[in-house]
Every structure is written in C-alpha cells, then in structure tokens.
Amino acid sequence: MSDYSAFFRQATLLAEPFPYQQTLAQAAWPDFLEIPTGLGKTAAIILAWLYKRQVAHDADTPRRLVYCLPMRVLVEQTQANIDSWLERLNLQDQVNVHILMGGEDGQSWVMQPEKDAILIGTQDMLLSRALMRGYGVSRYQWPVHFALLHNEALWVFDEVQLMGAGLSTSAQVEAFRRTLTTSVVTKSLWVSATLNRDWLNTVDFADYLPKAISLPLSSAEQALPEVQRRIKAIKRLSKAACLLSTETKKNYVAQLAELVSQQHQLGTNSLVIVNRVERAQQIYAQLKKQKPAAELLLVHARFRLQERRQLNQRLQQVAPEAGRIIIATQAIEAGVDISSKTLFTEIAPWSSLVQRFGRCNRYGEYNQTGGADIFWIDIEDDTLPYAPEDFALSRSHLLSLESATPSELPKVTTEQAIHPVLRKKDFLDLFNTDADLSGFDTDISPFIRDQGAAQLRVFWRDIEKPQTDEPQPLHSELCPVSMGQIKDYFKDKERAAFVWDGLAKTWKKIDQPFPGMTLLLLARHGGYDLESGFDPIKKPAMPVVLSEAAQSDDSFTGDQDSRKTKAIELPAHLRHVFEHAQHLVEQVQAQAIGKHAVVTAAAWHDVGKSHKVFQHTMLQDERLSDEKLWAKSAANAGHQRRYFRHELASMLAWLINNAEHPQRDLIAYLIVAHHGKVRLSIRAMPDEKPPKDKPHILFARGVYQGDRLPEVAILDQIMPATELRLELMQLGETEVMGPSWTTRVQNLLREYGPFELAWYETLVRIADWRASEAEQQEGTENPL
C-alpha cells in the first residue's frame, strides 16, 4: 500500500488525514510537533512511523519507536489504540508492542532487537532506563535496556509541558547521543499543543536548538472545517463560586462537590480536575455520600494495573443516561481521549490549564447545542505540587477571559522551572552499574521528575513476612506512590516495608525508603482501595490477586541461566552462541568492527565455566559424566565459592591467550559483561574472603589468583590449559597483565562511547539468551 491516505483510512476508519499528518509520514522527521488538542497527534506519529518502516522502508526512521508519556494513566489507552491500528493494517506479526512499566519479565521485550517495535511507558520508567538506572528493573538488565533505547530508537516525548525535570533531561540526553554517537540512527521528537521551544534550551542542547525543525498547523490547515470546529469550540469560562484558602479549607471539598452536582447535565460527562491526589480522593468520597444517579469515576496515577485497566475501559464508554462525573488529577490533562460538557478545574500553570480546557468540548461536539462550560477555582494556599508564582500569570489570564475557545487563548510563554541539569560527566558515571559498598545507587530522581511526583513503586503480598523464595513483583501488582504518600503510610508504626537485597539474596526490612525503590507491603496493613487507589489512611486488609510466576534471579550470587532441564556440553554451547551472534549482527547490520568483536566474544563468553567450581555445581546432576565439560545442567545447587562468576574467569582466559589481538580489550569487556554482574570494576565483595591456605593472594568474585582452567574446544581451535591471573584488578600496570581493568574500560568508553559499547554488550547477551532457549527446544540442537 504505497498511498498514505489509504493507509491512514484503513488504520483509523476515519476520512482523509489532516495535511500535517500526511507531511509527518512523507517528509523527514521534525524535532518538534506543535498541534492543538484533539487533532490526532498520537495517530499522526504512530501511523507515520508505521508507514515509514513497513511501507516506505525509510532508512532514517529507527526501528524502535519509544513513546514516552508523562502520566501512567495514558499508557494502556495508547497501547489499545496502537493494537487496533495494527490489527486493521494486518501488521500484528511485523511489529511488537510492549509496555515498559517495571516489574515485567526482564527479557520480555529485548529478545528481538532486529524487529520493529513500539515501546510505551511513562517518563519515570523510560528516562530511568535511559540513565542506566531502570526503575523496577533488575540492575543486571540495566545495560540491555539502556542500549536498546539509545540505538536505532525514535523517542517521542508527548505532552512535554507536564514533564518537569524530565524535559531538560530529554534534551541533554539527545545532545549526548549526538556528541558521543550511537551505533545506529536515533532521534527525538517533542510533542505538545503548548510547546515553548525555549524549554529545550539546555546547556548541551542549546547549540542544536537554532536548527531544530518544527511542524505546526499551516494557515490553510487551520481553515479546514474539521479544524475550525475544534479550534473554535464554544467553551464559556467563569470563576467558580468556591475558593481554596486557609479559611475555606475545612468546607472546600463539600462546597465543590455540591457545585459539581448542581452543574452536572444528564447524559454528559462532567470533569473535575484538582491538583492533589488526596483532594481528588476526598471529593470522590464526598460525592459518593450524596449517592447521585450519575456514574462516579476517580482518575489518578496511584492505581495498580488491573484497576487502571477497568477504569480506562469505563472512561472510553459513552456516558450513561444519568451522565458521568469524573474526578481527576493532572493524570487526565494529557492525551486522555475524553470530552466533557462541564469542567471544573483548580488553577494551575497556564500550559496545564490549556491542556485541561482541551478535555471540554474537545471535538466541538457541543457547538450545535449551546457549547460547554468551564469553571476555574482559585487557590490562595496549599499550591502544591506547583509553586505559588506558577499561578500569577494564569490568574491574570483567567480574570480577563470569558471564553476558553482554543483559538482565543493566550500563547504559552512561561519559562520552565529551574531543575537540576544532567551533565555529561554525571551521565558517563552512570554507565557503571555497581552499587556502592553500602548497596545504594546514585539518586537520579531529580533528573526525571519534579519533587512530589511518583518516585517509587509498591506491591502487596498476603503473608506474615517475606521469605527468601517470595517471588519478585509482577508488572500487574505494582502501584506508583509519591514519597509524601509513603511517609504518610508509615505514620502507622505497625506497618512494615521490605526491599529485595540482591547481594544477600533476601527480602530486607527497610525503615527509610528512597526514590526508585520497589517495596513489598503486607496486605493486612491496608493502604489501598479498589475504587480510590493508594490511600495511606485505609486500614482494611488489601485484596491481593497474584498470578503464578517463576521468581526472577535478581541476585549477584544467582546463576539461574545455567540451570536448564536439558544438559548442554560447554563446547556445543559456545558454538551455538557464536552462530546466533553471527545471525544477529547481520540482522541488525552492526558495524564491521562491532560484528567481529561480538561474534568473537560469543565464542569465548563461557570458557570460564570449565573452572572446577562451576563444573562441581553442574555435576550435582548425577546423570552427567565428569569426563565432559558442561555449560548447562539441571543441578539446583549453589557454587562452592559463593560469589563465583564464570564470566570473570572467561575474560581472564581471553586476555591471557590473546595478547596480540587488535580488539583484545573490547572483546574482553563483552565477555565479562554478558550477565551484567561484572562490568566496569573487578573487586571482591564486602564479605568475600580468600582461601584459608592462601590468605594473601588476589581474589575477586569467586576467582582466585592461580586458578587453572583445563583445555576447552572453542569452535575449531583449542584453548590450552590456562592459569588465571588477577593483577589487573589493581591500579597501575603490571608486566604480566598490562594496564588495570579500570584503565582498559575507561579507554573503551573514550573510544566507543557508552551507547555503542552497551550496544555490543547487548548483542552478545541476546545471542546467549537465544542460544540457551533454542538448546532447550525438544528435538532440535540449535535452531536459528
């Protein structure tokens, strides 16, 4: 189908695309998309990308579309729209669609980097991955997510006026990609109806801003009847007969609920948008007491997946005969495809108010019946989550306006608030995924969201206390919570929270949560309501629905990938991974230097499994012969040396046996990093000890100076028996091993940059995963 108009009509079941939608599909990608609310920005972007990838085969359109949304409530709605478009276009098998929300299987979306994919998530989930600190993701998966989101990816930042600190971070990271380079093309597209390009004027992106291309509506496009109906939509604007201040705070909720009931009209949606989750919950409870005939819905970002899906389905349904009253927070400002005849909104920054106005008479559907009404509510105190000065410009505009018709609204000229700015050195430092000796990581939350926004996730289990084998959380269980809410939750001293400790391989009780954590809460302590979401004052026991799932191996000492039903000999596994790596680098068209490094690292990646410690573990499966070397077995035992990492032994063997190889250090890095557990540093663990009979030798990660590996068949060559040496874990340079590992890695980062280095690292890991999966297929040794 070469005609985009036909492509668009088939996907959407609508008439012709707007001219800007046609331009987006047939011209080079712009940097900014500035289109009024209600004119199909999401469809424009998704369908343009699909057309360029699947029909036009545009070489400048990356194969992964990363759709970054400011609010969690938008994610499932966006996925539902995309799924329907793909089904109508018969492209379900050609394009993968994944939600990145934390708690998902770490390998669920990364196994096919050569396939077109649409990745949808909130800025918390996506930007944290882009900074190598993925929220709700095993630290050992961080490099893989980082690589796939920075190489051959088109980032779409939707409703940028809501991104806060994340907006400047998005600009900085785009600048880093341009200066540090990626292995394949990656782009960013910023989208909003109220875009001020000066918001992107960050220290590193400023040089690129003057040449940035913007796509707005043309003058001719604005004159089209369908556009006119939207931008001339009748929206009367007046000040509500209530005020939030210190004096009125006690009665505010009741007064507002009464006003909403009075103004609601049968058969229509009435929308109430307030600035705080707690206030939305209180108004919802107050309206429930009135027992109105209208359907009541509460919308905010503090729901679990299963309740949120039900809520989204109800939002998309036509209002019942008695109508529907929706109480919401900022979660409904951006992208939610809903329209109301009556809108109440608390005062907010002007860019946010413009978005809220867009949820009223959104398509001009009430123009023929007298239009719609918007009532704005002033706030003198309790301005959170905004600063008091955010309201000054909005108040001056509101007091001078009687209409919120889009074409008559003042433009957004406000400056972005001052946020911490991510600098290049900080970004490069994040490439190291090792926790510090206290087990903590750099707090990236100031670069992702403004203070007060959702910054950690919780889930509940109906248990007395978590045991070591308590499964990791599923995506469907997780509920985002602000730092303020979790503090309120712990005002009840009986309540407890637990966090997974990957080093100790156990659930640890925690007294002081910090941003980015995933906390296990006890169901009997409450804190959640199916209708109102996370609520720290709720005491009744929390209802838990848990699907069966295998526990993910999120511990440093674990070696789950080596425990397989079907035993595999080591030489065979090395050959299988090599073959999968060859196939993969051809499919993703890796650069020549990278191709050689990836396939060579794949061939050598597990030679360290020949180590006696690893073989002792494999041979706990008594069916296996000790005359062979094994890469996989059904043995479910821990290693004799608790922290033993076979990939470190593999890397040392490679260095010792390939002293003259021109890509010696790059291949060594790809070998040692293929599980994500040893990467930029080689050090002993805090409680790791040397052998009692040799207390003064070098040791790290279960490998001792002088350990020996036997001969290993690697493809058509034999690696000779090799004595392992660990001098490179020390600073400086030695005659035997040369520069330290730290020096080698820093040189690699300078030569290849973090994006390309992580990309090669990821290709080796995926080849290993694919080969391991194929080996377990019945009747087939190594299907590609």
UniProtKB/TrEMBL annotation:
Pfam families in alphabetical order: Cas3-like_C_2 (PF22590), Cas3_HD (PF18019), DEAD (PF00270)
Domain of life of the source: Bacteria
Keywords, ordered alphabetically: Antiviral defense, ATP-binding, Helicase, Hydrolase, Metal-binding, Nuclease, Nucleotide-binding
Domain Helicase C-terminal: 252-413
Domain Helicase ATP-binding, residue spans: 22-213
Every HD Cas3-type domain range: 563-770
Similarity comment: family membership: Belongs to the DEAD box helicase family.
NCBIfam families: cas3_core, cas3_HD
Protein known as: CRISPR-associated helicase Cas3
